[in-house]
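Example 3.
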Amino acid sequence: MITLPCVILVEPQLAENVGMAARAMMNCGLAELRLVNPREDHLSAKAVAASSNAEEILYQAKVFSSTEEAVGDLGWVAATTARHRDQTKSVLSAETAAADAALKIQSGISCGLMFGPERTGLNNRDICLADAIINIPLNPKHCSLNLSQAVLLVGYEFYKTQADMGGRQFVTNNTTPADKSLVLKFCAYLENLLDDCGNFRVGEKREKMVINLRNIFTRNQLTEQEVNTLYGVINHLIKPKS
Amino acid sequence: MITLPCVILVEPQLAENVGMAARAMMNCGLAELRLVNPREDHLSAKAVAASSNAEEILYQAKVFSSTEEAVGDLGWVAATTARHRDQTKSVLSAETAAADAALKIQSGISCGLMFGPERTGLNNRDICLADAIINIPLNPKHCSLNLSQAVLLVGYEFYKTQADMGGRQFVTNNTTPADKSLVLKFCAYLENLLDDCGNFRVGEKREKMVINLRNIFTRNQLTEQEVNTLYGVINHLIKPKS
């Protein structure tokens, strides 16, 4: 059962870049690396060091002597290139390509993400093997990416399709979020103190101040512990100096 | 008028990483870099070389002696950290943080994206200055990122909020997509030829073959030029050998 796209690096020049690409793959939960005619040894010490604990991916990488062979058993391949080519082809953002790959994989189709040599990028003969071109949306005036960064961005988009962590969480650790009554009780306590101080006397102004204070203390999702901290602060402040 | 978030690197250790972060910023259309107590000279030859033509960002970077000063004029700050901290705080995915920053900026609020030192990440005193934590969704078993890669991923998400390139395009260059009639005419031509060859004789099988062929030639959005190419191919094939 195929569950992840493989990464195909066509004629990578530097072993270090292959290692860094492996690291980026591991960051994104990808595992299978295919190399077409790498110029340097992808198992060299430099490559392994650059992989930063992702050397398993390097050891298991398969080496091919042509791109045709490297994609032979795949059902869907997307090629990363910054330039549009003179080929009639779908051009997908990295996000859309990742979504497409995830769908294909769900249908049991093996997918590959293809990246070209550092200097020149993929040539037309490689690109014509791909079902689609991936165009990573970046500043058009400065879109040159390191090979491993291209792998990282596309892999990251794929990772996001698999592991929806939820865009927004609120972390309270071991404390309990305070419910409104607790917050309002604190606000009332503060309002009473301010009344006693002689503030708050004028009706309309008092109302405004109450609303301001309540906004301040409701906007930041206080925890019970934090409400207690606030009581402590206030009580310290009003304590007569000894 | 603020239009982009600034990037704040707190105590970056290596000048090279600052240069690479500048490159990643430029990739993502970001411009303003703030450095809190960088250990090395961010204008060194190494930093400039690593920035790969983004040295302007380095030259214009502002250096601060504390994180408090670096964020002083900002209205909203998000801190990147791989670990959740013991702080009650919103935790946003990079995508959600980018969307939030874009919204804040629309409201005229200056935003900052904060990144910690390479080895240790941001400490708790830095994080408590932030409105939210950015948690980049990555393989939890291998989520350590190079500083510039963290800047790249968060910057990329921000770039996507600004420049929606459309997820899916179909590039035909200077050729015209073939309309259905042209494709069907070609299919009919082919069907007739196959009839003449003596294939296609049995009614039900013929129907199946017609549908298969039409599916093959409609699924790939042919251009007019490509239809002509197909005619050429067929005509070559049926030409009697001289």
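The first strand of chain B starts at residue 6 and ends at 10. Chain B has two domains: 6-162, 180-238.
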